[in-house]
Design goal:
Number of domains: 2
Structural class: alpha+beta
Radius of gyration: 58 Å
CATH topology of the largest domain: Thrombin, subunit H
CATH class of the largest domain: Mainly Beta
CATH superfamily of the largest domain: Rod shape-determining protein MreC, domain 2
CATH architecture of the largest domain: Beta Barrel
Distance between the termini: 178 Å
Helix content: 25-40%
């Protein structure tokens, strides 16, 4: 007996067919995979471009930094070179200024020497030119030291003059002549006495120092009757008495006249023409009379060794 709608045992079942929905699903999956593949390739391409761009930027930065460092090093080298050149130029400028000052000093020295030479040629007395080189270290007479001595013909009691301010003027006299130098007692020394007279009125007196180059010297023992003929500014000169100082050597000008009613003589103060603080060159005048026997003695061994 057969059953309706059934099969007998052992008969295979009938396969089901795919519907339209399945085909749509498969199509969508293929489209999705295709788009995903394309998107992945674009992403990989963008990463490569980004890497290349980043590498290019880094390379440009490194190049700029390297260029900056190189330029900085070159600039520092140029700056160091310029600084060295400036230092050298400054040193050259200092040397040129020193040469200029030396040249000016030499020119001034030559001018003074020409003046001294011209004065020397005009002197009427035999003389020995000398240069002031110091002062007496013992300071016994406030003496000046000159660079000429007996070897050059200098002897004791020779008058010493100088050319100053366009005229000749008295400096003092030699008090000690050694072999190669001599001591000169300046006219401001209190131990020095000079026979003198007024150039205009011709009245005579004795000039004495007061021991200080900044203090006027005094002319004493002037007859009182000369009071009306003496005034400030009068020139005082050597009189030639005593055979030490030749006559007519300028000493200085009167700055003050002093007298007292109870005295028979008067005195004046005199400003020496010589500025001893600027004295450099002098002329030793030969004696008016022959040397004394003591001055002709040979040099002692001690003086020869000097």
């Amino acid at each position: 007996m057969k059953k309706r709608g059934g099969t007998s045992s052992g008969t295979p079942a009938v396969k089901k067919r795919l519907g339209p929905e399945s085909y749509v699903f498969i199509a969508l999956m293929l489209i999705s995979f295709s788009m995903l593949f394309v998107s992945t390739r674009d992403l990989m391409f963008n990463f490569r471009d980004a890497g290349l761009t980043m590498f290019s930027g880094v390379r440009g930065g490194v190049s700029e930094v390297s260029s900056f460092v190189t330029n900085t090093v070159l600039f520092m080298q140029e700056l160091t070179k310029a600084r060295d050149e400036i230092t050298e130029l400054r040193e050259q400028l200092i040397r040129y200024e020193q040469l200029e000052r030396s040249s000016a000093e030499i020119n001034e020295e030559n001018r003074r020497l020409r003046e001294q030479l011209a004065f020397s040629q005009e002197l009427d007395y035999s003389h020995i030119p000398a240069k002031l080189i110091g002062r007496d270290p013992d300071n016994l007479y406030s003496a000046l030291v000159i660079n000429k001595g007996r070897h050059s013909g200098v002897s004791r009691d020779m008058a010493v003059i100088a050319w100053h301010g366009g005229t000749q003027a008295l400096v003092g006299k030699v008090i000690e002549a050694r072999r190669f130098d001599s001591l000169v007692m300046p006219l401001y020394d209190a131990s020095l006495h000079i026979a003198s007279r007024f150039a205009a009125s011709r009245y005579e007196g004795i000039v004495e120092g007061q021991g200080n180059p900044d203090t006027p010297v005094r002319m004493r023992y002037i007859p009182k009757r000369a009071m009306d003929e003496i005034s400030q500014g009068d020139m005082v000169i050597t009189s030639g008495m005593g055979a030490v100082y030749p006559p007519g050597i300028n000493i200085g000008r009167v700055t003050n006249v002093a007298y007292h009613e109870y005295e028979i003589t008067m005195e004046v103060e005199i400003e020496p023409l010589i500025d001893f603080s600027r004295l450099e060159y002098v002329f030793v005048l030969e004696l008016m009379y022959p040397l004394l026997e003591d001055d002709l003695q040979p040099d002692s061994p001690e003086e020869v060794s000097q």
